[in-house]
Amino acid sequence: MVELITEAISIGWPAFAFLLGLVVYFQVKLSDPVRKKNAIFKTCIGMLCMFMAFMAIANYKNNFHGESRLLPVSLVMITCLTYIMGIYFTNIGALMKIGGAMFFVAAALSGYGNWLPQVEGGFPPPEVKLDFQSMTQQQLADEGEKIIFGGLGQSKVQGAIGKGQCPLCHGFNQGFLSERAPNLWGIPERSAERLQHDLYHMNDPAARNTVQKEAFDGSGTATNGQEYIAESHACPSCFVVPGFGVKGTNDTESPMPKIHKPPISLTLGELVAVDTWLYAREGQESPAYEEIESTYEKFIPEADRPQASADDETAAGGVLATGEEPITDLFMKAGCPACHTIPGIEGATGKVGPLLLEGSNAPQRLKDPTYKGHAQSTREYITESILNPSMYVVKDFPDNQMPKDFGQKLSAGAVNKIVDYLSSLKEGQDPPSLDAFN
Amino acid sequence: MGRLRSRQTRKNILAVSCLFAMGSMLLLPIFVALPALAGGASATGGPPPDVVAAQEVAGEGEKEQVEVGRDVYYKTEGPAVGAPAPKTEDTEAFYPRYNFESRVLLWVANQQHLYYGSFVLAVPIFCMCIEFAGLITKDKAMAKKYDQLAYDFIKISLTAYSLTAILGGILIFTFLTLYPAFFGYLSGIFRPVMHIYALMFVAESGTLYIYYYGWDRMKEGLLKWLHASMSVVLNVIGTVLMFLANSWIGFMMSPAGVDEQGRYLGNIWHVIHTALWNPLNVHRILGNMAFGGGVVAAYAAYRFLSAKNDEERAHYDWMGYIAMALGVAFLIPLPFAGYWLMREVYAYRQQMGITLMGGLLAWLFIIQATMIGILFLTTNYYLWQALGRMTGGERFQRYIKYFVFILVVGLLVFITPHTIVMTPAELKAMGGQQHPVLGNYGVMSAKNGGINAIIMTTIASFIWYQRGNRVPAVKWAKFGNIFLITFFVVAHINNIWVACYGYFIPANVRIGLSIPQVAGTLSCLFIGSALNLAMLRQSRELGPIRWGQIAPRSQYALIMLATAFTWMMGLMGYIRSSVRLFWHVNEIMRDNSPWAYTHTIGFGANVISFNVLFFWITILFVFWLGALGAKKAPVPATQPVPGGAPQPATGH
Amino acid sequence: MQTVMYVVISIVIAVAYFQFLDWFLMDMQGLDYFYMFR
Fold it and tell me: How far is B308 from chain A (nearest CA, A)?
């Protein structure tokens, strides 16, 4: 309290001095005793009010940022002040009383606000973009597991799948069936062995028999195990493990999509995380972040590196697509282009599953005597194939390759939209305009 | 005589054509604006013209590659013609600053501009209503009174109008100096409509000035009608202005028309017509009207309290009553508009809704609920006081205590929170997110029950007030009275029943219950007041309304109402703005200034109080100026008026 | 007697009105007003 008073006087002394001067002035100048008394009285009241006002200001000044629960007190003081002034200065009495009433209401509300429990929002979380670079090995590996399987600890769960969509084709655990793509157990050691493979042609890409010889012109081939992993992600067709090529190409073309390109589009940071997990889960020391990153920089030209996007709504277990999105996005989100070639959809050049010319294919399949499904029409056939892929498996393609949970991951609207589009694709015809499906 | 008349006619024709010329000039900006807006509006079918244009540009000459971006909300594609949202950092370049929190400075500048802006937008709407009321009323004396009142209203808003413009300028300067990157980005996005906005402002001023200064010249016959229709034009322009201003905040909360990087995609209609634009528009119009009513009521209270004679007192008592009635008339639908806005917020981003109602900002909604309760309580209090100026009003006095009971119970239920942010210790002490007993009252249907009970009681108070000095004399008066009472009782019972019923059915069915509840309240409003008016068409008067003979404390109720409106507006604005948390533009442009965090409730309440008091100090000054001018005008001789209401004391 | 008649009529009308309102508006939203009674 004493502090407040001294503070108030130190702020407001010129005003007090002025009013004191006025008192002296009235004392000397006015001769009419009634007027003199009146004037001096009013000036004194004025001083009192001024004092209270400066007290309030001092209080406000002290408490502006800190514990401001005393603020209402100063507002109440101002309220009293205005009332006193309203009483003594009748010509502005109404104004002062109204002002006082308003101060009172505001003070009460302010007090109420300060009386409630105080929660501060705190600073925003760091940018949603994960900063892979500053993570520890363990954090990186955890992120990698999330990217591959959709969640921590999901690597042991059958059918778990994340943004990277790797388990769609690759097996990850020892002894797991992995028909369409090599099982990745033991890859940290095996990767270096692959460089010695007859068909690999280390440092001599021109000698390769594959459809794509280098990740990009002048990139060269891998020279160590980690570079091999990076090259396989960036340029799956640069070297195809025998037996895992697209059917009929004699292992010169890989069915795997380029992992940095749509639909999967992993960023360099994410790729590093994935690789770190591959090492970490086998109890091996993983190369440092920069080391892994540099291997990817070797095989992915700067212009092709995807940017981290802030929103990553397709969390594990959630709905992949709602049907609201344009048709291209819908396919990308659902992941179809990773395995299927879909005419008209950019980037949908997958070779794991059949070509989806369903406008022509479906009627033939329905006539196939081995067809045991329940579909009667093209639309029904496509819907059935999405929701229950094993009902009819196209010849030369393995069963149990396509996820069976699209019924949970796609909304009815999304399935309809996909069916609409696919049923309009016919052999020998240009794909329809995408605008009609957006 | 004939020549005189023809001269009069000629003069009239001249005046009318002049007015038309002026009017069309004023409306020119709108017509200029139309093609631009239409261009945006046509975008739903086929590519918008801008896209075509951009593609043409891309095709020929420079071969400039226009990248295609996808709208974050509408999911349409368009050429990314705008610059991406700047990625700001906490540096002087992005956030220049004084030695003070920039956000609070901007907050104050914005709020003051908004207060004045909504005041000058609301008052012409009142003017319009009252002027038309004066035009259509058969009672000559009453017509004159209404006309005078409308004039009084617009007179107040005129001074406030220039202050609005000044504050708008201050706001822009504050933006430019403190948040240059953000403001630059926003104005880049809204470039196509920026000048329309400015031109609309010019049109608004022009119309307002003609409307005000032409009042005396255009007070007879056809010209009067023209004058009245000018108020419609004035309000249309004002409303469009507000909608445009709303599109900015709508864009900040729920951006559309830009791609993920914040690049403008060439369709301004998408930018304006965001997810929350329309709910915000409706909510704001209603809010402005309630607020405007409050301010005018406070003005009347001020003049009442400072009145020197009974005539003045009578006039300002009447003015305060009308303003209060108008304000409350718009206050009643306001919670429903609020529900709509909230539903749209939930539909847009559930997380945003949760932050508002159950998360960080939930305590602010408890303040708001308390304030809504206070507003209705104060309204009731004023009406009960106002019964005192009517002969026969004392008949109702003994029932007031029951009304108070219903209001208090309703309020207590209404302000009980459902879930709230708590510390772990508090959680443990309470044994869960919800209080074992009180938590039950926090369910939405119970809360709706609380507020609906309050609103219904307020409606009943209004009906009382209308009957204050009158007794219905229609043949079916007895049945009417019994029916009215039964209707209200059953409405209350139904309200309680629905509120309780909500506990026994699943949540998805429970949500739907709020609509019948609201409809029940609205039935009371419409059926109740219609029935009451029908019954009062033939009525026996017990005595005159003694305007001016009301306890001064009723005027403090008006002031309380006005201050609470102002405070609540500040509070809701704060909530609406801070729900974006650390985004300038939600999910598009991050706020990386040192002030990106959310303040405590106490700090927020203090700044709101400061804003409220600052506004009232300045507007009291405006009132004082108005009174200063009025004092010089001679007081016209009063004529006795049927119903005993004296003439207004001031002339123009 | 007349008063009682009026009260009864009023109650019938009001209760019927509100029940209808509740049911109708719930039905319009595709929800079942009589959920608990089925």
Answer: 11
